[in-house]
């Protein structure tokens, strides 16, 4: 309301000024000195208002932009969090749309929100001045108004093109951000320096920028051309008007005040028209951006919502994959081809297979990051598609192969595994002991309160600490184990980065921890799963062998051969260490 009041007053100012100026000039010319003070006082008051109002408007506008920004961002990120699966985040078209939607900030929406008041003010000014002009010369008022129409049309179409151009540049802009972030990213710094990638990346950044700028330049050129042509048209109109007014004044049919008011009214009308067109164009730009925001908001859920959701009971019998087929998209090859697997409640199941066999994919399906293309996954007989994903995930603890390293304190890095237990230090320490992270964290300068980051400063302005790869892995494992009481524990390569001693220790503790719990362990280290209740071998998306370690070795199939290769690698090296150095035979054979 305050913005509206300020707008109306500000909108009437120019007309008032023109009118009072006419009174003053006529008063001065006509004689009696007592007709001068009132218009002078009026002009002073109008000048004061004209000086103060813009600042009041600017404050009110910034405030409304801030509020709108909070609202829009809250809305957008709530929607994005609502996408429960991963497929949207792997869809470049969605990422481009999201980038455009994120540009619809409070500030960018200004032309629609507070800009509406501008538009309102300018329209009021315009009507006032056009009215004044029409009194003096209806023809001139008509001409000035009609000359504005092509300007308006041209600007609108330019804005449409501009937003289309920005949208078309989304992919290039994302590439540019990607390349430039590699140049400044601490994670990438090693390889960038060793491989001498700096220049290569810089050229890519500049290349993307240049191509984006070329499109902008074309549009700017077009805009400058149309705008100049249209400005010339209005100048011609006002020039003609002035000639006409001067002619009338010379022949005594207009007073000096009339001519002054006329010239001011024409100039003011044209300025108000330009401002109105500018408002409308900016508003249309903002609305086109808002369209992207709305498109993201209106996207359907990526995972079909549960058909009549049922509550997920605690696991009592087991999890069953029944003829599960999966590919990442219609044009992608099948990754899982008819997997039948039961993970009985309370059993420790191990999943092994060559790189790319589909092990991590199977885990992602268990977490319902994607739905199987065919087949079902049953949790005690309940199709997991009938359960809200959050409820399913709340029943699982998972260590992903590509786990996150958060720039948070050690305690928080573990605690994020169970947000409710974030401040439960005993629970965090228990999990850390189990994963072997405890001894690492205790040796840090502030123990569990040490910031594990080199990009943020700690509470006392001290730099954070960098952990080694294996140390991070222990922290990540603790993060999964802090949810240890969950029904299903899934560990994807939990020990790949650990030294032999730590690996042995971790697996020993995990064996104890997993005993009697339902767990699925993916690993290339076959020695670590010898006592799993069930070992499953995945090859090309199919289960080709299953049984206990002894069953599989006795069967003499692929598992037995892999196990023998790994074991013999160690034995040969132990006997004649020098003879085989550099042959690579000590590397995990499953990886070859
Ligand atoms: N997000 C994805 N989009 C498309 N294809 C994918 C995606 N993730 C994995 N794939 C493909 O699916 C196949 C199986 O990958 P997956 O990660 O499940 O293998 P894995 O058995 O875990 O291998 P590794 O032992 O190397 O971890 C691979 O061919 C891979 O290219």
Automatic annotation (TrEMBL):
Residues 319-565 form the ABC transporter domain. GO terms for molecular function: ATP binding. PROSITE patterns: ABC_TM1F (PS50929), ABC_TRANSPORTER_1 (PS00211), ABC_TRANSPORTER_2 (PS50893). It is found in: Cell membrane. Keywords: ATP-binding, Membrane, Nucleotide-binding, Signal, Transmembrane, Transmembrane helix. Residues 4-285 form the ABC transmembrane type-1 domain. Its main location: membrane. It is a multi-pass membrane protein. InterPro entries: AAA+_ATPase, ABC1_TM_dom, ABC1_TM_sf, ABC_transporter-like_ATP-bd, ABC_transporter-like_CS, P-loop_NTPase, Type_1_exporter. The chain crosses the membrane at residues 126-154. It comes from the Bacteria. SUPFAM superfamilies: ABC transporter transmembrane region, P-loop containing nucleoside triphosphate hydrolases. This is ABC transporter ATP-binding protein. The lineage of its organism: Bacteria, Bacillati, Actinomycetota, Actinomycetes, Streptosporangiales.
